């Protein structure tokens, strides 16, 4: 059992040590705002799309495409929004905070933190991970916009739905998955020189993403409406992944998919939940607080879940 605990800690802790490095570098002014902006551009438009392209192109699209798994992930995501909304009824006094609370409670940092977690446990992001990116991540955007409009009737940004759909179509991750799928279907291989170059960006994506998350971490945001943030954190890191995993087990999904489902629902809140909430006149301070608190405490929740998975031989 001690070995299982050491393994669990060795999976979760390195992710947050890299984040901590980013935080320290920012405090020491080694990492600047300009660096963060440039890094985010490289991650979003180059490194992560290349990682997704490589993953899809090297897998068998016809074999990895699983409508049952996709259906479960989409359904569970919608249900998670509904559950978070009902929880907000009993935990939030100011209705203006509802949108930020629900958004931070259901939207996880699947691509940045999730990819790191998958690689630490399994050695790769896996063949079915791009399915999550292709189907669930766009659903995140649509659900977030609808939620924030619904919970803030005074919001004048009704055209945000149109913008969300446009962003989905032009999203570099979606384009990379489509191109990777085409490459897989026709068995296309990049020339060795280009493939080696792509592999360098593939390796760069995860650590650079974690560094930038740490560099944007703000301690002062932890203490904004701490009571509400604690409720959101418990739901996001413990209740939601426990429900998703136990239901997946009941449906008979294999261990690999059970772990992927945990990663989808158990990672901390995505930084973009703050960005979208702020853009749509939601409570941006609460949104930032939830992102910071779930990120900080996820080192403990991830270690706990991995430990349990090791005991039951799921990972």
Describe the fold and architecture.
The chain is mainly alpha-helical and 315 residues long. The protein has a single domain, classed as Up-down Bundle (Na+/H+ antiporter like fold). It is 78% helix and 0% strand. α4 packs antiparallel against α11. The longest helix has 28 residues. The radius of gyration is 19 Å and the shape is globular. The model has no long low-confidence stretch (mean pLDDT 87).
The major beta sheet can be summarized as:
none
Give the SSE string.
HHHHHHHHHHHHHH
> What proportion strand?
under 5%
Name the CATH class.
Answer: Mainly Alpha
Cα Rg:
19 Å
Q: What share of the residues lie within helices?
A: over 70%
Number of strands: 0
Determine the N-to-C terminus distance.
14 Å
Taken together, the total number of domains comes to 1
What is the tally of helical segments? Answer: 14
Q: Judging by the overall fold, what is the CATH architecture?
A: Up-down Bundle
**At the third CATH level, what is the topology name?**
Na+/H+ antiporter like fold
Low-confidence stretches: none
Task: Supply the helix-strand structural class.
Answer: mainly alpha
Shape: globular
> What does the average pLDDT come to?
87
Family: Belongs to the auxin efflux carrier (TC 2.A.69) family.
Protein name: AEC family transporter
Main location: membrane
Membrane topology: Multi-pass membrane protein
Ordered list of secondary-structure elements with their pairings:
Blueprint: H1 2-27, H2 33-57, H3 61-64, H4 67-91, H5 98-106, H6 110-122, H7 129-150, H8 160-170, H9 172-185, H10 192-215, H11 226-250, H12 255-266, H13 271-279, H14 284-311
């Amino acid at each position: 059992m001690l070995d299982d605990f050491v393994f669990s800690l060795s999976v979760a802790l390195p992710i947050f040590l890299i984040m901590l490095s980013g935080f320290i570098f920012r405090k020491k002014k080694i990492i600047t705002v300009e660096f963060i902006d440039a890094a985010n551009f490289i991650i979003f438009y180059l490194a992560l799309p290349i990682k997704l392209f490589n993953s899809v192109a090297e897998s068998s699209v016809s074999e990895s495409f699983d409508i049952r798994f996709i259906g479960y992930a989409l359904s569970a995501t919608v249900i998670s929004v509904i559950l978070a909304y009902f929880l907000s009824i009993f935990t939030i006094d100011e209705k203006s905070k509802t949108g930020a609370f629900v958004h931070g409670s259901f939207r996880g940092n699947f691509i940045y933190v999730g990819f790191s977690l998958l690689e630490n446990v399994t050695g790769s992001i896996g063949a079915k991970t791009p399915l999550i990116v292709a189907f669930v991540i766009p659903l995140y955007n649509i659900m977030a916009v609808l939620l924030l409009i619904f919970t803030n009737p005074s919001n004048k940004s009704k055209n945000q739905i149109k913008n969300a759909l446009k962003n989905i179509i032009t999203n570099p991750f979606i384009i990379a998955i489509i191109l990777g799928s085409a490459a897989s279907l026709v068995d296309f291989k990049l020339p060795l020189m280009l493939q080696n170059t792509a592999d360098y960006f593939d390796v760069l994506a995860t650590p650079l993403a974690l560094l930038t998350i740490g560099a944007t971490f703000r301690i002062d945001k932890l203490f904004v409406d701490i009571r509400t943030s604690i409720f959101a954190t418990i739901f996001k890191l413990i209740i939601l992944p426990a429900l998703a995993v136990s239901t997946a087990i009941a449906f008979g999904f294999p261990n690999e998919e059970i772990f992927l489902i945990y990663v989808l629902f158990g990672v901390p809140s995505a930084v973009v939940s703050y960005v979208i909430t702020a853009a749509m006149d939601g409570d941006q301070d609460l949104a930032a607080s939830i992102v910071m608190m779930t990120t900080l405490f996820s080192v403990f929740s991830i270690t706990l879940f991995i430990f349990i998975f090791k005991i039951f031989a799921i990972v």
